[in-house]
Amino acid sequence: MISNIGVPGLIIILIIALIVFGPGKLPQIGQAVGETLKEFKRSTKELTGDEDEQS
């Protein structure tokens, strides 16, 4: 579903986010999202690594 957004849809989403949150909050929101994704990837690597060691 998300892969069907495309460039125009992404631009619209960014404009709406800019209007809703304002230019001052967007860097903080982006940083929080990035840290969350990094933590999620690290956690999934640990889970898949644990399964490999047990097998």
UniProtKB/TrEMBL annotation:
What's a Pfam family in this record?
Answer: TatA_B_E
Keyword set, alphabetical order: Cell membrane, Membrane, Protein transport, Translocation, Transmembrane, Transmembrane helix, Transport
Q: Which GO terms describe its molecular function?
A: protein transmembrane transporter activity
Biological processes per GO annotation: protein transport by the Tat complex
Give the CC-aspect GO terms.
TAT protein transport complex
| InterPro entries according to UniProt | TatA/B/E, TatA/E
Q: Where does the protein principally reside?
A: membrane
The membrane topology noted for this protein in its Swiss-Prot or TrEMBL record is: Single-pass membrane protein
Against HAMAP family, the record matches this protein to: TatA_E (MF_00236)
* Function statement: Part of the twin-arginine translocation (Tat) system that transports large folded proteins containing a characteristic twin-arginine motif in their signal peptide across membranes. TatA could form the protein-conducting channel of the Tat system.
Q: To which protein family does this belong?
A: Belongs to the TatA/E family.
Which NCBIfam families does this chain map to? PRK14861.1 (NF011430), tatAE (TIGR01411)
* Name recorded for this polypeptide: Sec-independent protein translocase protein TatA
